[in-house]
Amino acid sequence: MEAFEMVVCDLNRRQFAMLGAALAAAWRTPAEAEKGSTMLYPREELTEAAGYPALVRFEPGRPELPVVVFVTGGGVLGRVAYGPPGARAADFLCHWLHAEGFASLVLSYPIDSRGVFDAAFPQFSITDWAEQSAEIIARYVDRNGLPANAIVLGWSMAGRIAEPLHAALRRKGKGIELFVAMAAASALPNTLPGLDQLKPAASGLAAIKGAYLDWLLECLAGQNSAAGHLVLDADGFTREMTGDFPVGLAASAMRYRNGAFVSDPAGDAREVGTAQYRSFPPLALMTHASPIDARHALTDHSTWGVYITQQLCEALVFSRADDLAALPSEKWALLVEQVREAAQRLSATLPGNHMFFVGENGARRTVQRLKLLRQTAADVAGEISRLMT
Fold first, then answer.
1. Each residue of 158-194: b (16+ CB within 10 Å) or e?
2. Statement to judge: residues 208 and 356 lie in one domain
3. 330 in the Ramachandran plot: left (φ > 0), alpha (ψ -120 to 50) or beta?
4. Residues 254, 180: one domain?
5. Residue 38's pLDDT is what?
6. What domain range includes position 55?
């Protein structure tokens, strides 16, 4: 009974917070809007899905191509994929996706961004994130007559959404053609120990200032320097694109409970599907080799290699045990070679740092490599399937 009452109270708080946010936006004066409260960029839309608000930007493309969904990371709005008004469009990912004919859908879960969300949701979880993202993706796929299986780019902490997002989409009759981890945390535990130091802000959200905001700004400075011009200025990026975020999304196994952050590694592993290899979508990796982001530069290929290999084996090999036992030795040798090389073929190291897709060269290269990885993923799956027959 106590647990039921807690759930009801949480739902009531959430509903009242969202109602308050809607009323505040409706009654905001022009002068308040001028100060930067709830100022949306072109094509942006505030919506609700799975009981929470989200910031969404959709741009149509060729209807025969899958939508490319950008899921942003910890404490950064998806605006980093398309930039602010007045910026050079060619410096951002969505411009080059559009140039290649892809529809793009950029998703931002609720963070403490005073210009967008008026309420904080410290208990927002990986499960909530996946359900919200799946509901929005399905909505735009159906509305625009797009293929049921999307391509998903999971940047930074959004790598943790791969398995639960795929599961949520499948429950809606959709799926993921290819999930590309972009310098992203995987479902393996304890791979980003520095995030254990996150502290709660007054809102109950994880504070990024004093944690890793300075590091993000260092990454941005590196991308600005590589571009040879100011892609995004530090103040504008901080003010309009960052904010404190729900700690349950972080690669730290922390949860918000009773005003504090507590460790829950078992619950975290269940939410991100750590051992559910068969439930992951087809995977690929884009990362970098920058010492500014040493952990991803040094470990992404190995950590994501585990999931790339296991997913392929579970989906295409282990589920066909009878066929596997009947393989002639020549085919078995070729299968071993294909599987051993798959993770390397499905991984790419791009110039730049944790924000390698920011700036014209980085954004263009990212989309070109996405096209190659998409084709490679189809080739690898086809080759393994043929060897299994």
1. bbbbbbbbbbbbbebebbbbbbbbbbbbbbbeebbee
2. yes
3. alpha
4. yes
5. 57
6. 43-387
Confirm if 58 and 141 have CB atoms less than 8 A apart.
no
Nearest to 220 by CA among 209, 207, 212, 231: 231
Tell me: the pLDDT tens digits for 306-330? Answer: 999 999 999 999 988 888 889 999 9
Cα-Cα-Cα-Cα dihedral of 337, 338, 342, 344, to 10°? 40
Alpha carbon distance 352, 275 (integer Å): 31
- Report d(CA 175, CA 214) in Å as an integer: 36
**Do 182 and 214 sit in the same domain of this protein?**
yes
Helix (H, G, I), strand (E, B) or coil at 281: coil
285 close to 348: Cβ distance less than 8 angstroms: yes
How many Å separate Cα 45 from the centre of its chain?
Answer: 18
Same domain, 19 and 123: no
In this structure, the answer to whether residues 187 and 316 fall within a common structural domain is yes
Residue 7 has pLDDT above 50, yes or no: no
> Residue-wise over 301-320: b if at least 16 C-beta within 10 A, else e?
bebbbebbbbbbbebbbeee
CA distance 90 to 100: 13
List Cα–Cα distances, 379 to 260, 349, 372, 376, 383, in angstroms.
48, 20, 10, 5, 6
Query: What SS3 state is found at 347?
Result: strand
d(CA 269, CA 334): 34
Residues 235 and 330 in one domain: yes
User: Which amino acid type is present at position 356?
Assistant: F
Q: How far apart are CA 195 and CA 249, in angstroms?
A: 11
Residues 153 and 216 in one domain: yes
* Closest to 287 (Cα-Cα) out of 301, 276, 273: 301
Q: How many domains does the chain have?
A: 2
* Tokens encoding 7: 């759930």
Give the CA angle between residues 307, 66, 126 to the nearest 5°: 45
- Structure confidence by residue, pLDDT tens digits, 231-258: 999 999 999 999 999 999 999 899 999 8
Question: Are 198 and 236 found together in one domain?
Answer: yes
| Structure token pair of residue 213 | 């905001």
